[in-house]
Amino acid sequence: MQWGIKNRLSRIFNPETGRTVMLAVDHGYFLGPTRKLENPRDTITPLLPYADALMLTRGILRTCVDPEANIPVVLRVSGGTSIIGPSLADEGLTTSFEEAIRLNVSAVTLSIFVGTDYERETLLSLSELVNEGEKYGIPVLAVTAVGKELKKRDARFLSLCCRIAAELGAHYVKTYYCDEFEKVVEGCPVPVVIAGGPQLDTFKDTLQLAHDAISKGASGVDMGRNIWQADHPVAAIRAVRGIVQENMPVDEAFELFESLSNE
Ligand code: 5RP
User: Which residues line ligand 1 (CB under 6 A)?
Assistant: First the structure.
């Protein structure tokens, strides 16, 4: 792997653990002002000290994150659709590589929509990004998106998506946790991180999800709603961090969450 790509990946993945806690705050690019992310600066700022990297669009980066903030950026460079439009899968590339370089990003990211009418376009966009990324030493994160079809999240489908992303050169892949998640990891030769998905019933469920994913081979999380829609977001990210970066058992991480929530 070339030096620039390795160097940037080591900003995202802690070299000592090989793992990452990415904070995803890119939801507005198709969902608009999502609950608890209405004012992104207010949501993001207190969480920054506990995130290894921030995933967001250039608009929110420029307006809601100070350039002095010392946080690696994973820049979402795909979009062009909305939750009320005809198809979430019809995404294109929105942001140039020159812009990514100007913003000093540690990686760029896009969604791929395997199994939809737009699989070819989104997979070719991934390939284009990888070609550019290799030119400039910037890693590419492929997100195996399912749009509104959350029921598609099974090991057979997600293994297919992750493997295709890796075959096309993605440097790491984000997907969903599922039963037999170890098969997804086994079939994917690059690191896999998991999204949290919509808010779960309890915060302990979130911790269990993170723990199960890590114990089955995930290299970290790229989590949004289950952190910043929690009643105590700072306590939430610190507890998830305990699991990902410190190998805490679920009960210990939950105790940490409860004690920080009561401070
Ligand atoms: C949307 C994304 C989100 O960043 C991703 O889903 C992570 O956020 P959450 O944990 O809220 O699901 O990539 O396509």
Answer: 24, 26-27, 55, 111, 143, 145, 195-197, 222-226
Report the candidate in 87, 11, 94 with the shortest Cα–Cα distance to residue 60: 94
Q: How confident is the model at residue 149 (pLDDT cuts 50, 70, 90)?
A: confident
Domain range holding 34? 3-195
Q: How far apart are CA 64 and CA 218, in angstroms?
A: 30
Closest of 149, 236, 157, 162 to residue 200, by C-alpha = 236
Pocket test for ligand 1, best of 108, 140, 143, 172 (most atoms within 8 A of CB): 143
Give the residue numbers annotated as catalytic, written as ranges.
174
Q: How confident is the model at residue 108 (pLDDT cuts 50, 70, 90)?
A: very high
> Which residue, judged by its Cα, is nearest atom 1 of ligand 1?
27
pLDDT tens, residue by residue, 204-225: 999 999 999 999 999 999 999 9
CB 5 within 8 A of CB 138: yes
Assess contact for 243 and 210: CB atoms under 8 A: yes
Q: Could you tell me the CATH number of the domain that includes residue 44?
A: 3.20.20.70
Atom number in ligand 1 closest to CA 145? 14
* Atom of ligand 1 at shortest range from CA of 225: 11
Q: Is residue 262 situated within a structural domain?
A: no
Q: Looking at residue 3, what is its pLDDT? A: 96
Average pLDDT, the chain: 96
pLDDT of residue 1: 79
- Residue 119 is assigned to a structural domain of this protein: yes
Number of domains comprising the chain: 1
Ligand 1 pocket test: pick from 27, 76, 174 the residue with the most ligand atoms within 8 Å of its Cβ.
Answer: 27
